[in-house]
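Bug report (template v2)

What were you trying to do?
Predict the complex of my protein with 3-methyl-2-oxobutanoic acid.

What happened?
Run completed; filing so the output is reviewed.

Input:
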Amino acid sequence: MKQMTQDCTPTPLSINNLLAMKQRGEKISCLTAYDASFSALINKAGIDVILVGDSLGMVIQGHPTTLPVSISDMIYHTRCVSRQPNQRVFVIADLPFMSYSTPIIAADNAAKLIQQGCAQMVKLEGARIEIVRFLVDQGIPVCGHLGLLPQLINQLGNYQVQGKTPADAKRILIEAQQLQDAGATLLVLECVPAALAKEISSQLKIPVIGIGAGVHCDGQVLVLYDMLNISITKRPRFSKNFMQEAPSIEAAISAYHQAVKQALFPSIEHSF
Ligand code: KIV
């Protein structure tokens, strides 16, 4: 039995609330966060989901990729984010590169994110169907991640839009269905054509959260530092500087939340 390092008080939003949002056509708003102060602002703005992404390797640690991020880094930042009084937001934590290479390793690391980090769900990249099935069998909620997979950057060679050919689009659609069948209860789709994301979102029962995947997904996620225009790297084309028309960080986060809920973001210029 692992020691809990803090009181993991259940948060009000659950996966059932997110599923219900999809069913009634309400868009799900999601931002990444890595610390308590931004987590508090995001909670206050009414954002539905925080993703403690391994993008922290780039925006917090200053690495050129997400690959150096360790499971200890993820536990530390997830705990910082989850340490909110009256927390409403649903918290997902990324399993970093090589932390889910076998089912046992995946379960051990996912358990740490949940028990020590107080995450409600873990996310992993790719069609790792057997790993997802094993985690779900252990009672660990899983979010899949398809399309552009940043942890594969050394195989891909660049961060480009995926699913542009009919064969690749079909592969991603099949993988999405396989992840759902294996028990994943959420899916992140990154950098795919809007038409493909629309088809996947309509075919799946589980909510699909897009990033660079068009407005027809069930929800949207952005890297917080990109939408606040404080990233040290160039903002991706699919992101938007919400600080441009906002007087404060709080107002920018609220504007993003409203834009997602009203399906005003992403527009065509932020889609592929
Ligand atoms: O690590 C991250 O922030 C992510 C998002 C880009 C979806 O996985």
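What did the reviewer find?
Residues 166-181 form the longest helix (16 residues). Confidence is low (pLDDT under 50) at residues 1-5.
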